[in-house]
## 1
Amino acid sequence: MEGMTYYGALLVIAIFIFSMLRTNHGGMALIGLLLGVYIVYSHETGHTATEFKNDMVQKIDEEAPDFSYNKDREEGKKAIRGEE
């Protein structure tokens, strides 16, 4: 996040957490706190959830190059029915 957007997002989350704690909504305050931690972590390290997801998808694609969802699904249905 660039410039004041980063600080603005943290301020909004801090106000959200404060208001949730004042109204006894601890679960929502915890969710807000986790969101704030994620924003700070991704800003400081440069790692994001999207980057993690893309890495996992790439690794799966490399490990299973001939996997075809439709073909394997049809073969699975035939095996369940006892067809060859």
## 2
Amino acid sequence: MFFFEVSFHDIMGGKMRAIIAILLVVIVGFLAYTYFTSLSEEEQKVKSLEKEFNLAVGDFLRAIRTMSDTGLDTTSDVDGAVVKIKKVKKELSALKISLKESSAQERAGKLDAKIKEFERKNDIEEY
């Protein structure tokens, strides 16, 4: 009977150590990921505008694809997407003035270039 208790303890002790070690590695990994991928408030604002831009681009491309595939008039969908893109561009211009962090300024600059390139490629005029 004493032999059974020692074996049971040895088996469970080894498993528990392994489980605790795995949990510690997972927790440390999660904390490191959270620390290195967290964005500042300014970066979050720019990222929000990036998301809005990407959604508007998706709407634009969907409308163009529908127009070319089916021949349906989707002009209002295209115009709606262009209005969204212009809105993002305007908000980005206002936000760029107030940005203090270099990482947020860099991200905003990339988004601005992306918007200008999209407008150029798709012949979207300023109005």
## 3
Amino acid sequence: MLDWREREHVEDDEGVINHQPSLDALRTCGLYKYWSIPGMRGQVRFLEWLVERWNVQEQCFYIGGHQLEIEPSDVYFLTGFPNRGEQLSLSGTRPGGQSLDSLRDEWCTPGAHHAKGIEIKHITLRELRVIAFTVTRICGAAALHIASGSQMRMAIDCYQGTIFNWCDAMLANVKSQLTKAKNGRLKTFGYGPLVVSFALERVPMLVPQHLTVDVLGPREPKLIRWVAVMARHPDEGAAVVRFSDSYFHWLEDQVFSIQDFPYAGMDFRGDPDMVLPQGEQWDDRGTLLFTSFLIMYFFLFFFLYISSHN
């Protein structure tokens, strides 16, 4: 059985809500939207159902005979992460920079020490502390309260204003964890909310029949609407959805279809919480996919209309 890993720093988050410098720091580096999404209640059975359908060789899901790829645009619209900026890898060692001891000396309370990294609670600056907690979540870390040297350097770069392309970086890690989980080499899965929400968005038949999900505004990450019905804490959502045994038995008899682009109407352009890297301007990049799908569906509808009248 997989372990569902979720945010473990609710008390720190509650303090940040009324701390404007921390909110400003999150916005400056493009992490505010993701940070503001509440935690999701663990849905281990559903996650394991999806992992069973992950094809390691092709790096995609197969659901009901349909190929389903998770792409950077899915991560972008689900999380509200920047899809531009400096490229980075969330695994391995981040080259250059300060040593772990040097980082502790500069950013942590005196005497703070942990063999595997930096205990985030010992970081003295609240703005950096909340960014470090967010970075460990993005990295899908097994221990969210410990930042490795690489993660700490990422957090410092974010605090100093660097905007990373988190969409590509997180997607690579998601696929890696899915592969390890499928091969039985991973116990703690760090991207449960993202993968579950992705599947529910792209495969409509997976949504329980009794469930009504909110339609959000054009600047709200899609992940929010699924957290609202699977909230980890009662005061953060309207209902608690559980995927029972009867649900999975029901799925066995269903015919699945894939929703190619469920993000119609979303548009982050000009959003003050979506800061662009220095020197870049908003253009149609965020809506190119949306426009192409509108054109495709228009011509399909036109073709069917002509065919039906001949």
## 4
Amino acid sequence: MAILVQERAGKLLDEGIFYEKQEIKRTDFEYHIGDKLKFVLIVADEDMEFKVNETKPISIKKIKIPPQNLIVSSMYGIHPIGHLSAIGSYNVPSGIINKERIVDFGMFHAAIDGKISKDEVVGATIMLPVREI
């Protein structure tokens, strides 16, 4: 299960709590856009603390990128403390497009002090198929 964290625009839900969490199935938010594009949530695979303006790598749940597909970052901010600037893997195959790739980490930039917990949604990506010309 993934956890979607929603900001409550500065309104305290409890003392010191500005966020509301909702457990979701990751696949409930996978959408096919037309018959070619796929929208996929990116979910944290570890707990991590951040300070304002800090950027560092964070482990994410594995996402398989099929051969002949590119990934495009969704620019819509999903996590209340910041945004992913990139996703990738430390194990890059020799073929950058023509082989399956596994995405397993992201670079997260914090706009405010805060924490990301394992299983929280930290971003989204769009997979789009490509062909050689």
